C-alpha cells in the first residue's frame, strides 16, 4: 500500500512491480521478486531491504568543493517541525512505492537539532508520534536507529572517546535519546558507528584510556536499553578511517576483538558496510566471512566504493561478481542475525531528478536479488561446495580428525611428518572456482 502525505512528492511514479528480466520498464524490478522463495525463505525476508533516511531525504549532495545540488520539495518550510513532517511524508512515500519494509535513521535525520538538548528531545518526541502513525498505517518498520555523534562540532575530538568528560556526557545524553526514540518506534536493532571514535594524531591521544571509555559508554547504553525492554541486537559498524585518520572499529576482526576484550560479545554483532570493507583493504566477502565465523554477522550496509577513489563514496551496488561472492558467504552463514540490507548509499551529486532515487534502489535491490539467485544455484547445482570440502578432506578422518578434535600432541603431529611421505603438491584450483561464479551469473 502506498502512503503519501498531504502532497505527493514522487508524482507519476506508482508502486514498483516485479516484471522480470525481459521487462524494459525502468520503474520495475527485474530480479527482486519479494515473494520468491530462495533456499526456503522469500527474498523479502532474506534481505529486509531498508532505506537510509539520511542519504535519501537529508543529504543534498554537498561536497568539499561546493554546496548541495538537490532541491527537495519537503525541505521548504521555515518551521523545523513542518519540515520534519514533510520529510517523513516523502520517506514513507518512497519506501511504500518501492515496496520495502524498513528504514534506518540517525536521531538528527528525523528532525533538525535545536539549540538545547531539552528542545531537541521535545522535537524528537513530536516527530516520533507522527512517524508512529505512519508506521501503523503502512506496516513499514525500523531496521535500526542510531545517534549522530559526529556531525555537531561539539564532537570534533570524539564522542565516547573524547578527552573531555563533558563531551562524553553530551554523547551519552544523545545516545539515551536515540535509544528512547528507537524503542518508541519499535526498532529491531540499534547501531553504533564510531564516526569520530579514533584519533587524528597519536601524539595527543591516550589510546588505551579512550578504548576503555568507549567500552564503558557502550556497556551503559546496553544496560539502559535492556532495562527499558529492548530485546534487539546492538551492532558495531566497523570503518578504518574517515572522518578520523584512524578509527578504533577499524575492521570486523578489530571490532570482534574489542567486543570480546570488554565482555560485550553477547549483546553486540556487526553491521558490515561494503565501502568500509574496501577502505580497510579487505573485500566485502572477507568482512562478512570474519563476522560470520565469530557468529556476529548481524547486518549489512550495502554501499560500494569506487575502485579509483579512496574514500567512502557511498554508491549503490551494481557489481554482480562482488555481490555474488558476498551472497555465497551470506547463504552459507544462514543469513543475517537480526539485521537486513540497508542501502547506506546516495545518488551522485549530478543526479538531480526526484526519480533518480528510484532507479538507484531498483538497481541495488536487483543486484542483490540476482546475486542471491546466482549464489543459490552455485551452492545447489555446481561442484563449488564439493570442491571446497575436498580441499579439507584430510581432516575428516584419522589423524587429521584427531588434530581438529585436539587429541593430538605436538610430538604425535611431528611423528606423522617424520614417518610419512613428504606432502604432495596439491593445486588450490582458484581459477576453476572463479569460473564457477561466472558460469552461474
Ligand atoms: C558512515 C557510516 C554511517 C553509518 C551510520 O560512513 O556508514 O552512515 O552507517 O551512522
Ligand atoms: Ni553505514
Ligand atoms: Ni559509510
Task: Write up what this structure looks like.
With 441 residues, this protein is of the alpha/beta class. The protein has 16 helices and 12 strands. The chain has helices at 43-47, 53-58, 80-98, 107-110, 117-138, 165-184, 207-227, 252-261, 274-279, 284-293, 320-332, 356-381, 384-391, 398-405, 410-419, 430-440; strands spanning 37-38, 41-42, 50-52, 102-106, 141-146, 189-192, 198-199, 233-236, 246-247, 268-273, 297-301, 341-343. It has an 8-stranded parallel β-barrel with strand order 3-4-5-6-8-10-11-12. A two-stranded antiparallel sheet has the order 1-2. Strands 7-9 form a two-stranded antiparallel sheet. Helix 6 (165-184) links the parallel strand 5 (141-146) and strand 6 (189-192). The longest helix has 26 residues, at 356-381. D-xylose binds at residues 106, 146, 191, 193, 237, 239, 273, 301, 312, 344.
Give a brief rundown of this model.
The protein is of the alpha/beta class.
Cα distance spanning the termini: 33 Å
CATH class of the largest domain: Alpha Beta
Categorize the overall geometry.
globular
> How much strand content do the residues show?
5-15%
The largest pleated sheet is described as: 8 strands, parallel, barrel
CATH architecture of the largest domain: Alpha-Beta Barrel
Number of strands: 12
The order of strands across the largest sheet is 3-4-5-6-8-10-11-12
How many structural domains in the coordinates? 2
Tell me which ligands are bound.
D-xylose, nickel (II) ion
Amino acid at each position: 500500500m502506498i502512503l503519501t502525505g498531504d502532497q505527493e512528492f514522487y508524482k507519476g511514479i506508482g508502486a514498483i512491480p516485479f516484471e522480470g528480466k525481459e521487462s524494459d520498464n525502468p520503474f520495475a524490478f527485474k530480479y527482486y521478486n519479494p515473494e520468491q522463495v530462495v533456499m526456503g525463505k522469500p527474498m523479502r525476508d532474506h534481505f529486509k531491504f531498508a532505506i537510509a533516511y539520511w542519504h535519501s531525504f537529508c543529504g543534498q549532495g554537498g561536497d568539499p568543493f561546493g554546496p548541495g545540488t538537490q532541491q527537495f520539495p519537503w525541505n521548504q518550510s521555515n518551521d523545523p517541525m513542518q519540515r520534519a513532517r514533510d520529510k517523513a511524508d516523502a520517506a514513507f512515500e518512497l519506501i511504500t512505492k518501492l515496496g520495502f519494509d524498513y528504514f534506518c535513521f540517525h536521531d538528527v535525520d528525523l528532525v533538525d537539532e535545536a539549540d538545547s538538548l531539552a528542545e531537541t528531545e521535545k522535537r524528537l518526541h513530536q516527530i516520533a508520534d507522527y512517524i508512529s502513525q505512519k508506521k501503523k498505517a503502512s506496516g513499514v518498520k525500523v531496521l535500526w536507529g542510531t545517534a549522530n555523534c559526529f556531525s555537531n562540532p561539539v564532537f570534533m575530538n570524539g564522542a565516547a572517546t573524547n578527552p573531555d568528560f563533558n563531551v562524553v556526557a553530551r554523547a551519552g545524553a544523545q545516545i539515551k535519546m536515540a535509544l528512547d526514540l528507537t524503542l518508541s518506534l519499535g526498532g529491531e536493532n540499534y547501531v553504533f558507528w564510531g564516526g569520530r571514535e579514533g584519533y587524528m594524531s597519536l601524539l595527543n591521544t591516550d589510546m588505551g584510556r579512550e578504548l576503555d571509555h568507549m567500552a564503558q559508554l557502550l556497556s551503559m547504553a546496553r544496560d539502559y536499553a535492556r532495562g527499558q525492554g529492548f530485546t534487539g541486537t546492538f551492532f558495531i559498524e566497523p570503518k578504518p578511517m574517515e572522518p578520523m585518520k584512524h578509527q578504533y572499529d577499524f575492521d570486523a576482526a578489530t571490532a570482534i576483538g574489542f567486543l570480546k576484550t570488554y565482555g560485550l560479545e553477547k549483546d553486540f554483532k556487526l553491521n558490515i558496510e561494503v565501502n568500509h570493507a574496501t577502505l580497510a583493504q579487505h573485500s566485502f566477502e572477507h568482512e562478512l566471512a570474519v563476522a560470520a565465523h565469530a557468529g556476529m554477522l548481524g547486518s549489512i550496509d550495502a554501499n560500494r566504493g569506487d575502485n579509483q577513489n579512496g574514500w567512502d563514496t557511498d554508491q549503490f551496488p551494481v557489481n554482480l561478481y562482488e555481490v555474488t561472492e558476498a551472497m555465497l558467504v551470506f547463504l552459507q552463514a544462514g543469513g543475517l542475525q537480526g539485521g537486513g540490507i540497508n542501502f547506506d548509499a546516495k545518488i551522485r551529486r549530478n543526479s538531480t531528478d526526484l526519480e533518480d532515487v528510484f532507479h538507484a534502489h531498483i538497481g541495488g535491490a536487483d543486484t542483490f536479488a540476482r546475486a542471491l539467485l546466482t549464489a543459490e544455484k552455485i551452492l545447489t547445482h555446481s561442484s563449488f561446495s564439493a570442491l571446497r570440502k575436498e580441499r579439507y578432506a584430510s581432516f575428516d578422518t584419522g589423524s587429521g580428525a584427531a588434530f581438529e578434535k585436539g587429541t593430538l600432541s605436538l610430538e604425535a603431529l611431528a611423528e606423522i611428518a617424520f614417518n610419512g611421505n613428504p606432502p604432495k603438491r596439491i593445486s588450490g584450483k582458484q581459477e576453476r572456482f572463479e569460473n564457477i561464479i561466472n558460469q552461474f551469473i
